[in-house]
Amino acid sequence: MQGGSNGIGYGLKYQARCIADVKADTDHTSFLTGTLSLKEENEVHLIRISSAGTELLCEGLFSHPNEIWDLASCPFDQRIFSTVFSSGETYGAAIWQIPELYGQSNSPQLERIASLDAHNSKIKCTLWWPTGRHDKLVSIDEQNLFLWSFDTSKKNAQVQSQESAGVLHSLTGGAWDPHDYNALALTSESSVQLWDLRTMKKTNSIDHPHVRNLDYNVKREYTLVTAEDESGIHIWDLRMLKFPVLDLPGHTHWTWTVKCNPEYEDLILSAGTDSAVNLWLASPPSSDEPTSESFDSPNKPVDPLLNSYSDYEDSVYGLAWSCREPWIFASLSYDGRYVPLQICILEIEPCVNDGVNAAEVECRILQEVSLILSSMTFAVHFHAEASKPAASLQIEFA
């Protein structure tokens, strides 16, 4: 389904490609963005959505040296974040702290509390320990993986271990497994590499070139989603790496980024150089899951592409779900346009009688709902436990 966004917008002064949810802010729905100007002093914007959801409030605007190519928020301190930056042939990565009085007009600028300065090649990204208060973070350059120990009280970071990916692999990014804190997935020009941080060794790989970005499914173990040069996304089962379990071609040019929802396991965002953001409901098939042919119904299965937001004027490189309000996501196009969008939630609890498969109930309801709501964008999240007498069906409308 094609459509424009009905979100409120916020314009940055310069071009930009980085946006991150402020995970540690439990009182507000807020995001950090960083600009990418070659000639001007760059900026970091702290943006909050008003309690009524009708306004975007700039809570802080800070100068930042050099072009910002990656930005990640600290999961346990809302005032701390990391950036990867470069200018010409120079590059760097650092951890920053927002000043306490950032809401005042005369507030001081960002404080650089640690430099990740052990790299000898171009840095691609930083990854924070997935959740909670932990002192570890990872930085990735074109050839190497670094594990850092970060001390907030002493305001310094030290290399705990490092390893080279080899001269034949040019690393481009990565993601930290939220189900196994010792595991990372790294993207390179020729493959997706799976690493164990305890040994700092590669444990497996997906020989699949031209993956731009990837993300783990927070709610579904062993599930990895990749953004493909071939104009779509792939979903992988890490126990069966020969082929993807789901291939979703939905972009007309390179897919640059992909993000899994932090709460609803089947909701996925993707964006790319076709100036579109796609919202998916993508559930990997299982051997015991009935198909639409299992039931006597003329209706077609629900299209996994729920909506394609196409009113951007430039490539979309930045996507972020809100962890605090997981029905809200934000997009950032290269021309500096930031748009948050909200998915409203309707809950239905159908009764599952004895002898009726819960997945059968799900399929039948989806078929009925698709007829009623054929003109609307909707996503469905379904879960059922054998020990409970009812299944829960959640329908989200964009």
Automatic annotation (TrEMBL):
SUPFAM superfamilies found in the cross-reference section: WD40 repeat-like (SSF50978)
EIPR1-like beta-propeller domain: residues covered: 5-280
InterPro entries in alphabetical order: Beta-prop_EIPR1-like, EIPR1, WD40/YVTN_repeat-like_dom_sf, WD40_repeat_dom_sf, WD40_rpt
Entry keywords, A to Z: Repeat, WD repeat
Similarity comment: family membership: Belongs to the WD repeat EIPR1 family.
WD repeat ranges per the UniProt record: 248-280
GO biological process annotation, one example: protein ubiquitination
PROSITE patterns linked to this entry: WD_REPEATS_2 (PS50082)
Protein name in UniProt: EIPR1-like beta-propeller domain-containing protein
